[in-house]
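Students often ask what a holo structure prediction actually looks like on paper. The answer is less mysterious than it sounds. You provide the chain, you provide the ligand, and the output is a string of discrete structure tokens encoding the 3D arrangement of the protein together with adenosine-5'-diphosphate.
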Amino acid sequence: MSIAIEIAGVSKRFRMYREKPSSLKQRILSGRVRAEDFWALRDVSFDVAEGEFFALIGQNGSGKSTLLKVIAGILRPSEGVVRQRGRIAGLLELGAGFHPELTGRENVYLNAAFLGLSHRKTDAVYDDIVEFAELREFMDTAVKFYSSGMLVRLGFACAVHVDPEVILIDEVLAVGDEAFQARCLDRVRTFQKEGRTIVLVTHALDMARQLCDRAAMLDHGVIHAIGGPDQVVREMRRTISKHDLEFAREEGSREIEILGGSLHRGADPLAGALAPGECVTLQVDLKANEPVDDPVVSFALHDGANNFVFGSDTAQHGLALGRVDGKRRVRFQLGPVPFTGGQYWVTVGVHSRDNQRVYHVQDQRYSFEVRQTEGRRDQTYVPVTVGVEEL
Ligand SMILES: Nc1ncnc2c1ncn2[C@@H]1O[C@H](COP(=O)(O)OP(=O)(O)O)[C@@H](O)[C@H]1O
Ligand SMILES: [Mg+2]
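The corresponding structure tokens follow.
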């Protein structure tokens, strides 16, 4: 398999000027403006194979757009090199690559020329571009008057009509109306079938999983994970939930407080990952700040993608706590866990039986991991016994 894009040891430094010197005198006295270096990319290396559909994911500010611009040749890396073969068309951040003062028509020709298309060849595709972008009446308007949707349409139309070998798409599939998004996606799929190379920055993790051959996750300018899209998307979701945890919601009126929740394997605090089919105990310690009648303790489990997977409470299992004053310890013993590989997040709460009053909730505060059995693709764990008899 030959390589379409080779990214070797790429770092990108932005120089940030914190403050403008307030006077010439100050500038002379201090010698220069205070600048700070900010590394948007650090030592990024990977290859994209010819014909590969590659997804770049990562949280805002992780460096995805910067990396695409470096690949497109719009930004020069501070360190490292990018080598790429073939015509590379980019649909980068909104308006990047367009000249605001020029008209739509002029921008189309400029863009095409930049990509090495002759005037004649551009003439030949011009009508298709305009039609695809649905901007017939606006081609003689300066693009600075375009809405974001119009910019995206023109950008996408240009990118797909210049016969690129490599196409870079930054997030744009999220902008614009649904009909246009569907058409873009359609085009991208055609490109994929034609064996062109695609690098797509996206927030749509499920789309990345379904469409892409491979993915990389950037985190603070560093490649945090790279590989099969399932694995990388899972890692991304794990990171997101960890991040959410820092802002974990706690709410409630606190007549009863949760002192803490913990997970146990048998009598011991849970250490390490569970195997599918193992049992686990969730222990919740409570303290009543004033006597409360008949509170209900509940828990919920969410997977790494924040899907609710299971929940239960003391009332459902016929346990009445009665009048609670002082402290209590509630134990939920979970039978063989039916989950396969992944991280699970535990929410615990105390509330009145009719749910009208929430005393205290800790949202996705605790977590445990279930191991993925090597080489298995099970969605769920089912306990099985097997036998044989002679007939
Ligand atoms: N021209 C620039 N000057 C200074 N900092 C920049 C510039 N472009 C991007 N950055 C910074 O680099 C980091 C990565 O940005 P970006 O690549 O746009 O991230 P993403 O696309 O993943 O959201 C951000 O912290 C951003 O503020
Ligand atoms: Mg971006």
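Residues 64-65 surround magnesium ion (ligand 2) (CB under 6 Å).
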